[in-house]
Amino acid sequence: MNIQIFGKSKCFDTKKAERYFKERRIKYQLVDIVKFGLSKGEYQSVKSAVGGMDALIDEKSKEYEAQYIAHIGDKNDVEERLLENPGMFKTPIVRNGKKATIGYQPDIWTVWEKGE
Questions:
Q1: How far is CA 90 from CA 18, 25, 37, 48, 114, in A?
Q2: Cβ–Cβ contacts within 10 Å for residue 51, how many?
Q3: How far is the C-alpha of 44 from the C-alpha of 63, rounded, in Å?
Q4: Which DSSP state fits 59?
Q5: What is the pLDDT of residues 26-39, one digit of tens each?
Q6: Spatial CB neighbours of 23, under 8 Å, sequence gap ≥ 6
Q7: Which of 9, 50, 67, 89 has the fewest CB atoms within 10 Å distance of its CB?
Q8: How far separated are the first and last CA of the chain, in Å rounded?
Q9: What pTM value is reported for the model?
């Protein structure tokens, strides 16, 4: 497994995801999404794995409100703002190659461990 956890330092679910992989001695790379964001390639990969951009947006984030995302009709504009303001991503985003999850999803990670 090649695990990457994109998370926020103050996100409780990010800490739980880290603990999940630590307890199982699974190596992972932690990326501070607010500081480093996602590259366009990473974003496209995660977006296709989770079923689209809407699943990635945290509508409760301060950035979501500040960017007036709810009032923008153009999806391309929303995507640009999302990439420019990575604090709007729901976290943690956990990647395993082409697979990805959003939030704390131990049931799916267990399936990844078994290699299914």
A1: 16, 25, 12, 15, 26
A2: 10
A3: 21
A4: T
A5: 999 999 999 999 99
A6: none
A7: 9
A8: 12
A9: 0.90
